[in-house]
Structure formats: C-alpha cells, structure tokens
Amino acid sequence: MIESLLVANRGEIARRIIRTARRLGVRAIAVHSEADADLPFVAEADEAVCVGPANPAQSYRNTEAILAAARSTGAQAIHPGYGFLSENADFARTVEASGLIWVGPGADAISAMGDKINARNLMAAAGVPVAAGTTEPAADVAAAVAAAAEIGYPVMVKAAAGGGGMGMGVAVDEAALRTEYDKVRAFAERMFGDGSVLLERYFPRVRHVEVQILGLADGRVLALGERECSVQRRNQKLVEESPSPAVSPELRSRLLAAAVRAGEAVDYRNAGTVECLLDPTTGEFFFLEMNTRLQVEHPVTELVHGIDLVEEQLRVAAGLPPTFDPDALTVRGHAIELRVNAEDPKRFLPGPGTIKTWVEPTGEGVRVDSGYAEGNTVTPFYDSLMAKLIVHGQDRTEAIARARAAVAAFDLSGPKHNLPFFAELLENQEFLSGDYDTSIVSHLR
C-alpha cells in the first residue's frame, strides 16, 4: 500500500480522502489556500502545506506549488479528488515523470476522454451507443447550421473541451443555433482555452444515468452499478440515487456492458464514470461523456455495494487487487445523495457567509460528507458545495423516509442553503414515483 498521500484538493472531498487514508495507516498530506487554512480537512491531515492565495489558479491549480509541496513532505502519491487538476492530463504526466504515483487513470485515457468529439468517436468505434451528432468540430456557424440540418432540431450545442454541465446550450431552430453557437464558443475559449464546438441530438425528455467503472491493476474493467442523476439545475446535479428507478434488469445489463466496453476502449485504470442519456420512452441510452476521476456522487455506489472507492483507488494505484471479489458483486438496498450547497433554495444563486450553526443529522443509514463546521466561512472563491447528505435504506421507500428525517434534522444557519428545496423535493409526487426526468426541478419552481 502507498505510505504517504498528498491530496491535491479541498473541502469535503479532501476530508473524505484523508479519512480513508488515515484508516489505512497512510500518512495524509493536505494542501490548502490561504482562504481555507481553518477548514476541517487541514486540521485532520497529518501534515498541511499552504500553496497560495484564495484564487484557485494560484493555489489548487498551481501545479508547481503542489509538486513542491509533495517534494517537501516526502509524499509518495497524489490524489487529485475531483475538479481542479483531476482531469488535467499534463499534470498527471508531470506527477508520474516526477517519480510519484498518480491516483487516477493514465494520462492517455484522460486526454482521450477530455475532448468530447474524440470521446464520441472512440465510443462509437467501440460499439457504445452514441447519439446523432458531429464527428468533428463545427468550424463556424455555417458548418453548425449544415450539421443541425442533418441531425434535426432541437440540437445541443456543446463545448468540445467542456464537462460537468458547463458550456452547453439548446437550439430549437436556425436562429437560436446562430446565437447559441457564438455563446458556447466564446464561453469555451474563455473557460477552457479551446473554442471547439460540437452538436448533438437534443432529447426534450431525458434522464441522466451514469455507470461507475473501476479499472483494476490486472487490466480488467468492472461496472459497479448505475446512478440516477436527473435532479439538476442548470445542468448541475443536485440529487443522485442508486439503483436508478428507471433502469430494468435488462436495461441494466446493456448499460453496464456498454460502460465496460467504454473503459476497455481506452485501457482504463482506476475509478471513472461513464455518463449516459436515457430516453425513458424508448429505453434507448446514449453515451454522454466519461469523467476520468472520482465523482462527487460516489458515496451512493459505496453504500449499495459496501465498498470504499477511495481505498480501491489507492489499491489500483499501488498495483494491488481489490478488497472485494469482482465476480461476486452484490447490490444492497437503495442510497440517495443530496448536495447541500450554499445557495438560495429557489433561484439557486450562491449565498456564501459564515456558518453560525452546523449540526449534522445522525442515525441509522445516515452519512454526512462535509467540508465545513460551525464558525467556518463559505467564501465565494470556490464551488458552493458544503456537504453531501447521503442516506441508505433497505429499499427506495425507506431511503426517502430517512432522507426526509435527515433534512429536517440538519441544523444549518449563516450562509444561504438549499435544504428547504430538498424538503420540498422529498414530498413531490413526481420524484416519489421515480418517474421523473431532467426537467423535474423546473416543475418545482
């Protein structure tokens, strides 16, 4: 097993990785910005290094500062968490060239999946269902208009270098396409340094379902079940559950087999996620993207499979076999994750501030992965995620009941937060039925 691990991230995911590392006897090293010096993950690490000011470009995305911290602390490996440098292929290569262990997939897999057009083409070649769309970037508006005429309206306009729901727009006709193309291209150039744009068929009613994959050290790729991620605002997930209430055993078999093919196509190692769009009317699913990292919503998979994905990541990176029997995976009950964000529960606008009260719910089947505590300040410099409230039950009905009780028991004041939204959602008949899609949040507004 790896002996010392530098966690190149912050907040709840840094704290969560540190928790597993310390349980395994691995020395955990935190890096932090000046703004995060008082957060729990810094105090809970065996060692901590300040890598710069609040601006992420000068701290959490500062590759030189992070590598210097690894050298000065004698770290053997680097875990990037999610966001920041987690899907930066150049950083992964630099880490390994420096003689350190990268806890994640190989740089080639990150590169292959980072370009959405290249990813679509690779998946299609591997026999993974892909929605109708462009096989190369739309060089200009005229090319986009011509492509849309072949695909058929409505179309999704996407940044080829984007991910995580950023850099997307829907066009229902040519006039809208001309507007969305310019918007997405400008956003992509500003955010990703790459203005390449792709077009895909847009599904007015669709569910967002993803599969957790794990590429083992021996070369096998496993599919660890699916997660339902259709409760979203502005293409950003708010709630995830596993198993998906929309997936039948027959569909699950096809979905998981396709995810394994996707991983095998890029010789995938470590944890990753194959995201798909599911047409609930036809049962067709289509590859959306592959996230070459640990997902925010990984705890629901952990709870239904009874495994620790961070531990499995460390074992793969160290060349060790998994803790479980790959040929005897079981699913136990149902799990739901609610993302507790510092944001207005109606308009979902950020609402940072100092936490006056923070009392986490407890009880059977309740887990809280938090990044903050009472007295901490949620700053505007980073993502608004404060904690993940995860519940597990024998079935979906019990999981929902536990989620309701946990939301009611979570005593939080200071920053704005979205717990009232979850209280409303957990009483909503559309959600309770399990027959919902990505438009559900708009129905609650």
Automatic annotation (TrEMBL):
Superkingdom: Bacteria
Pfam families: Biotin_carb_C, Biotin_carb_N, CPSase_L_D2
GO molecular function ontology, one term from the record: ATP binding
SUPFAM superfamilies: Glutathione synthetase ATP-binding domain-like, PreATP-grasp domain, Rudiment single hybrid motif
Keywords per UniProt: ATP-binding, Biotin, Ligase, Nucleotide-binding
Protein's organism: Micromonospora sediminimaris
Domain ATP-grasp: 120-318
EC nos: 6.3.4.14
Protein name: biotin carboxylase
EC class of the enzyme, as a word: ligase
Residues covered by the Biotin carboxylation domain: 1-445
Gene3D superfamilies noted in UniProt: ATP-grasp fold, B domain
